[in-house]
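Example (one chain per record):
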Amino acid sequence: MRQRALTRRAVLRGTAAGALAAAVAGCSGEQQAPPSTPKPPDPETVLLTSVIADKEQMVALYRQAAGPGGKTAARLRPFQQRHEAHLAELRRRLPAAATPSASSPAPSGSASSGGSASPAAVSVGRLREMERKAAAARPRQMGTVSPALAQLLASIGACEAAHAAALARAS
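Predicted structure:
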């Protein structure tokens, strides 16, 4: 029998065919996991986090407005306590994985919209306006959440609206 000499063309064809076979086998054999992309945040968790931050700011402003004590502090304490109760319930509903500041209340000097304001700088009128704005935001927030959270937001909004009315009479 005669042996044939391999030509360069034959070697290249064989290599190309082998590479193609390996690629096809790789595609149909093992399934590679898709690249892991971070899961988008849950819209309800994002809303809860935002409402919690707003409530922390509200509590801090009530503490600043009340000052060290006196008549104003006694008058504002029930409002502040209701906001703290709202804050506790909102935090309770926040998933454990999304609670970076859930166990630590906002420092009393951290008002994000006004920097570190003195107690005299937070007027009853400013508190009333914040309550009014917060109450007005609740209906928009309720449209995209679970019924249980919508009910809580509605209750919080009603309380905020009552606060705004009471503060209007008090000032």
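Caption: Residues 43-170 form one domain.
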